[in-house]
Amino acid sequence: MPRITVPDLLRMKAGSQKIAMVTAYDATMARIVDAAGVDMVLVGDSLGMVIQGHSDTLSVTLDDMIYHGRCVDRGLERAHLTVDMPFMTYQVSPAQALENAGRLVKEGKAQSVKLEGGARTAPAIRAIVDAGIPVVGHVGLTPQSVHAMGGFKVQGRGDEGAAQVLADALAVQEAGAFCVVLEMVPAELAAEITEALAVPTIGIGAGASCSGQVLVCNDLLGFDSRFKPRFVRRFAELETPMVDATRAYVEAVRDQSFPAAEHSFRRRGARKSAKITRLY
Ligand code: KIV
Fold first, then answer.
1. Cα–Cα nearest to 87, from 172, 168, 148
2. Considering only CA atoms, which of 211, 161, 208, 203 is closest in space to residue 183?
3. CA of 196 to the centre of ligand 1 (A)
4. Ligand 1: does its nearest atom lie under 6 Å from the Cβ of 142?
5. Could you give the maximum distance between any two Cα atoms of the chain, in Å?
6. Confidence of residue 275 (pLDDT cuts 50, 70, 90)
7. Is this model's pTM higher than 0.85 or not?
8. Catalytic residue status for 195
9. Distance from residue 41's CA to the centre of ligand 1 (Å)
């Protein structure tokens, strides 16, 4: 099955067809979300938080992104694969940005890369796009600037802030991004930006008017009942059934009901042995 391309995504915006994007960090989750029909899969640097257990995304490395990009690529048949550029892999210079974006494509299997930041990121975006690598921009709340922003806060609530987010989105489009993520901005502002841009917007905590939406897979599936920000809708509550299933396994090991005869092998001649179709 052919993978979704940048022109396909631009056609979706032109045809007012909403784009569904979700994060994934490994081949199993990639296979699941691809089978569900998502259009774009993002290997987000949110993996620093949901996979590595950090309180922010700042310590994620380019090698981490390459590793997870390769894992996710193996699970995809149809969805477009975008891989995040982590903190300090594109801020130093356009040359640094281009070299690292190239590694994400060559080694991390990215079809496009995502960079955080507005007007100040434009030279890096331009350098990457000029080399033929598609770029997704990311404005509004940009988690790699958590310390400058004073926390994970809604951006663009006041007139000045709103004008800044709009200017950033336009600058990113002007620099050549084919798509822009709008994170944690008021719904009215996201609608205005979506109207103003020719390229698709993908919202997270940005209301319903964006060209598409993105959520972290662990959030939409309810892997962590402690985490419930306003912008997340949990489409399942999987933490409880996963804990229950694992508890049932622990009990079965302790009371010796697992493994049963059908999970065990016999010596040749004792009984026709079961055929192994999958190991691990
Ligand atoms: O890192 C990430 O997962 C992201 C999305 C939440 C947009 O940037």
1. 148
2. 203
3. 23
4. no
5. 81
6. low
7. yes
8. no
9. 10
